[in-house]
Sigma-54-dependent Fis family transcriptional regulator
Amino acid sequence: MGKNEIVIFSVSLRITQRISTLLAERKLQIPVYELNYFDVLDKANELIKNGTKIIISRGGTADLLRNNVSIPIVEISHNFYGIYRTLKEAREKSHKIAAVGFPRFCDMLKHYQSLTNEEFKICQVYNHADIENVIRQLSEENYRLVIGGLTVAEKAKKYGLGVVMGDTDNISIEQALNEAFSFLKYIREENEKLLISNAALNQTREGILCIDESGEIKRINAKGVDIFKCNAGENIFRKPHFEPIHNSIINEVELKDHPVEIHGETVFLNLRHVKNRQNFYTILSGNRSDSAFILNGKAGGKLSPKSFLVKYGFSDIVGSSKPLMHAVDLAKTYAKFDFPVHIYGETGTGKELFAQSIHGESARKNEPFIAINCAALPESILESELFGYVDGAFTSARKGGKVGIFELARNGTVFIDEISEAPLSVQIKLLRVLQEKSFTRLGGESLISTDFRLITASNKDLSPLVVSGAFREDLFYRINILNLNLPGLCERRDDVMAIIYALLAQSGRELSFTDAAIVCLKEYAWPGNVRELQAVVYRLLVLAERDVVDREDLYRYGKMARSDASASASLAIDADATDLLRKNEQHLIREVMALTAGDRVKASAILGISPSTLWRKTKELE
């Protein structure tokens, strides 16, 4: 648990001592503050600014916090056993007793009184300003002792009244602690989901935005800002380029690949509507017709090769392990020749990085490098991206037609990622282009000659797909002339720390790692390869509270699987806490059974459980 993520505001010295003892038994380092009522909010706001996520408190202090701060407030609940102990102490000091408290405490007192028939006065207040008036009146009525919290104690002292501070029991504190830990786990999980969600949204090649029922943009990714020309907080109904889909949004009509003109560019939009009991949202996603990261040009238009130059080269590949260097050396050899290359590697191994590097050292390095992902586009759009189309080829075709990738990439390199996902209809046409070095645009008749180098990639072995008929055998032999297998991160563990430090150098934050953490990082399997490692590093950059990362930080923030030994230790801690809670429960049952002279009905009412449950638990004690 991070420093001060959970804090406790106590309402009396007695409860402070009880909480401190329990925290020591559980070896928990949670700050406990015993505060004057008027200092509570200032302290809470100060702690929240410094990272506190949950406050545990009781009574009026809990109510005050709940109404004035935005973080969860976990209340140490009042129970009959705590009331019994407090009244027992008060009876030893005076026979004329009054209890002063807020509605929740007073409701519990009234219920207790109805079961036990004990005589004492209950004075309910709704704010701390009322407490002094109540204490003054009790003094005038010759009450010599009151029960209450810190503010009651202060005012009682002013009017010469004795005071017994409200008590609680270990079980109530345990329950509050467990609830706080559950809250904290949920908050961390939600923060992590948000972090990953934002990272994923900003990695996607689609523009994505979410609007509420009024049309206000609640969330939008970076690509969405670029494609849709709008920002979070703006209203989509005030954007003229979205006017063609206003009725679809209002009438909850779903759209798929619907063309819209935005600032002179065609964008294919998808609409999906989501609603629950309270809210209604519309998710809008879309790609430009140049969603393969190319610049479109009208038929006959001029395009600058600089638009398609690669961003990465072999110098950007981090690591020096033998498997990696073997792949780099082989790729450099392939770069000297013009034959097709097929790159096979698991997700996150850097297939496009290698493809760009090969192009950057080839004879075509000054010509375009254009990439497209078969898994990212519907079949109809994939074909139009690859081959282009003529004016009027289909309903939403751009006026004047569109230049396809094979035409744009003349004399350069085409990189087709996830080629294993290409539909058979596209495979047939791709084979024809490779064989004949020419093609026709969709809807056209004129043959267009082309000359490009093809690099393909997949995270699936194509051989079984050929056997099953999902991938054409003739195309397989055409693209698989030069084969490059990229090692997974588990095959090059010596590169892990080099990659981490390269990522940290880009972030601006310096982190170091203990020896145990380094061993853990190197021994981990990394099923998601470098992409998973990136995610771990990014989480540490955001969530790690110290600049020295240990193994526990990797488990907590990096979400890396624990070793069996660590998992066993964690289970042992949980078992100790459970055993402590069970012992406290048994002690409480014995005391209440003694108080009620063995009357299970009354005892079960005081304990807040059914008589049958009490019967079972008393049997366990025997």
In short: Residues 170-203 form the longest helix (34 residues). Residues 290-307, 563-575 have pLDDT under 50 and may be disordered. The chain is about 45% helix and 15% strand.
